[in-house]
Amino acid sequence: MTPLTATERHPDAAHGATPGPAAIGARLLERLDAPRACEALLDLDADAGLAWLCANLDLVNGWPIQDRRSVLAAAIDALPRSETADAAPLLAWLAGEDIVEPRLVLQLLDSCGPELRNGPAAERLVAAALERAPEDAQLIGLRLPGLIAVGEAEAAHALLDRLGRVDRSLACAQRIRRMRGELPATGPPPVRIALLSSFTVDQLVPFLDLEVRRLRLEPSIYVGPFNGWAQEIYRPDSGLHGFDPELVFLAVGLDDLVPGLAGLMTAEALEAAAEDVLQTVTGAVRQLRASSDALIVVHGLHSAWSDPAGIARGAPARDAWVTRLDLDLRDRIEGMERTAYLPLRDVLVRRADGPVDDPKLRHLARMRLSEASVREVAAAQARYVAPAKGRTRKCVVLDLDNTLWGGIVGEDGPDGIRLGTTAPGSEFVEFQHALKALTDRGILLAISSKNNPDDALEVIRSHPYMVLREESFSALRINWLPKSENLAAIAEELNIGLDSLVFLDDNPKERELVRQMLPDVLVPDLPADPARYRELVDRMPELQTLVITNEDRQRTGFYHARRQREEVRERATSLGDYLASLAIEVDVAPASASALPRIHQLFQRTNQFNTTTRRYDLAVLQGSADDPDARLLTAVVRDRFGDHGLVAAALVRMDAAECRIDSFLMSCRVIGYGVEDALLARIAAWGRSRGAAVLAGEFVRTAKNEPARTFFSRTGFLQDAADGEVEIWRRSLDTDFDVPSWIALNEA
Amino acid sequence: MRPEEVVSRVFGVHRADVTDETSNRTLPAWDSMAHVTLILELESSYGVSLSTEDALQMTTVAEIKRVLTGHGVSW
């Protein structure tokens, strides 16, 4: 191609008059192929080029896609330089095409007036560009008003969730919260959270809102008046009490409680101040405990000021003082009922970026935390909201290749995979340690991997650096089936819902497929760098538990024993033989004080075998255990493969001449062994001893508790009446309540 | 990004409605809390560190531009 001469570049100079676009176009077309000519014209004279383009769209549409794309780019580039051109035809043309770079769409819209920018063509264009660049914050921002205007609440909420992930700034978080205000709720369960503080925490709200929505909860957040935290707690008519929170975060600034920390303080003054702080905070928490059912989460203590004594030896060491005080506070808080301590200093150390403290913000707005810290604290708070609202998942399903180890065992061989003491490989060992710790918190692990079982099992059984072994996993699906099928099978085998599963896989395609097929399964994006795998698990709110019981620590063992039982079952000739061979022992006893936390956990968690699903709190259960007219019975189960632990409980009460079963619940782990029959026999015995003639079972139907209903019909109860949603099933106590022959029933 | 754009993003007002005269008196959304957000957003958009005094002065778009220019920022 010959370059244009100076005269051709500046035709006006040669002719003294401006030739029309058609004339320029014609002249250029003599020298160049049409698309290049068009580009050159757009470059030379934006007005003329755009006019020519808009007049010849039919011709342009016939060009190959590469040419259309580059001409478009040139046209969009020319738009801001043009005084006369109208963006409307371009916009309309583009909206019908799917060839334009998302970046150019933004550029084009920038050149449009508000009318065009908010028009239907622009909307289509933005939607199409967003398909190709789903993580572009600007495009998301342009797409949202349209969705909000037409009331597409669900899509808008999803897009706002995404925006919060790609732009983590405070400004963006606030914008998101503002837009949510214009949207109707889409139905996730609500949660009421109160923030009480001695300093400004308003900046926390938009971040906490984002975090809580990630848990599929709809937050309403109450922020107490500035520095009014104590009045809020002590005054019965305060906004806090009217709000009736489910969780209260109490963030009292140490520097606010002890303003003298800004300067040097003597050892005696510090000691006195420490006792004062402890009294003030624990006193307020005790008061709040007495007047509210909320989970109270107390933030740990931190001082923005470093030691005014500098590095001098022998001065009353400030950091040591804060650390000791913080530890004392933790001990006192954890000694109280239904409270939790948030390790603020640890959270601040682990924030990803930015300073802990921004002194300017302290003076401008009485903020005691920087933007980065506020974001991190909100993430930490979400780790309390999730378990408090029953959002804890029960099982993590893991891929193997490039998830638990580096490389592909089927290709690299058991000796070729990366797993060991140095990188690459040490990241995976570290990750496995975090997963192993999950099993100690009561969370199960399972495997879903596309592999030859023999290859994978060889690594799991004999690789020297595997931290997780066969007994760490409660279910194994190593095959070539789709992962969604395996996940469904794992949920069924473990007798838990799909909404109890987390799926971790390094392959984005597998993740996306599972998200589409099984939307109830939680599928986080695994970071690209395996060194960050561990962080994901450590920080995940859905894997947190507020209290760890003995049953939690043993749970993985229970499931491992269960797999062994299944093997026996496959060999047994009949179900009776199989059950007899298990040598099941059941101990039924009234609830002891030490068993209450576990009983409480059963009441909170059991969904399937639960007759009334009444989620009694610890205080109610304690009261029932002490009530002479009631009986809180528990069943502890053992067999030859191991302990099942405390797996069933029933709350019964004398009501005139009948014995009422208020609640009857059993872990799904032991469904099918007849444990419920043994417990029922003991209930009947207690009822008779109290002079009852009839046993009455209450039943409240839920989406999940059909197994409990069949229990009443199977054991000879007849449905008698219904009291609102409560069905009453009755059976005379004048009959025998059989204990299955394969169960040895002990009474404590 | 122009300072007007940052202001429009932070306060959720249309870009065309932001002029040099826009200030914390003309925009109801521009309260002391939102001011903190604005300062943080200006810092991250232009990679500058603003002082308390800078922040206290930046109460109009014209002042924002003046202080930013003083920090060697152009847009």
Write the layout of secondary structure elements.
The complex is a heterodimer of chains A (748) and B (75).
Chain A: H1 6-9, H2 11-15, H3 21-31, H4 34-44, H5 46-55, H6 57-61, H7 65-78, H8 87-95, H9 102-110, H10 114-117, H11 120-132, H12 137-149, H13 153-166, H14 170-181, E1 190-197, H15 204-214, E2 218-223, H16 229-234, H17 239-243, E3 247-251, H18 254-257, H19 267-291, E4 295-299, H20 318-334, E5 339-342, H21 344-349, H22 359-365, H23 371-388, E6 395-398, H24 409-412, H25 426-440, E7 444-450, H26 453-462, E8 473-479, H27 483-494, E9 501-504, H28 508-517, H29 533-539, H30 550-571, H31 575-582, E10 584-590, H32 596-605, H33 618-626, E11 630-639, E12 642-655, E13 658-666, H34 675-689, E14 694-700, H35 706-714, E15 718-723, E16 726-732, E17 743-747
Parallel strand pairs in A: 1-2, 1-3, 3-4, 4-5, 6-7, 6-9, 7-8, 10-17, 13-14
Antiparallel strand pairs in A: 10-11, 11-12, 12-13, 14-16, 15-16
Helix pairs in contact in A: 3-4, 3-5, 4-5, 4-7, 8-11, 9-11, 11-12, 12-13, 13-14, 14-15, 15-23, 19-20, 25-29, 30-31
Chain B: H1 3-11, H2 32-46, H3 52-57, H4 61-70
What does this entry look like structurally?
The complex is a heterodimer of chains A (748) and B (75). With 748 residues, chain A is an alpha/beta fold. Chain A has 35 helices and 17 strands. Chain A has an 8-stranded mixed beta sheet with strand order 15-16-14-13-12-11-10-17, with helices on both faces. A 5-stranded parallel beta sheet of chain A has the order 2-1-3-4-5, sandwiched between helices. Chain A has a 4-stranded parallel beta sheet with strand order 8-7-6-9, sandwiched between helices. In chain A, strand 13, helix 34 and strand 14 form a beta-alpha-beta unit. In chain A, helix 11 (120-132) packs across helix 12 and helix 19 (267-291) runs parallel beside helix 20 (318-334). The longest helix of chain A has 25 residues, at 267-291. Chain A is globular and about 110 Å long. Chain B contains 4 helices and no strands. The model of chain B has no long low-confidence stretch (mean pLDDT 92). In chain B, helix 1 (3-11) crosses helix 2. Chain B is globular, with a radius of gyration of 11 Å. Chain B has one domain: ACP-like (Non-ribosomal Peptide Synthetase Peptidyl Carrier Protein, Chain A, Orthogonal Bundle). Chain B has helices at residues 3-11, 32-46, 52-57, 61-70. The chains are: A alpha/beta (748), B mainly alpha (75). The interface between A and B is medium-sized, with 18 and 21 residues.
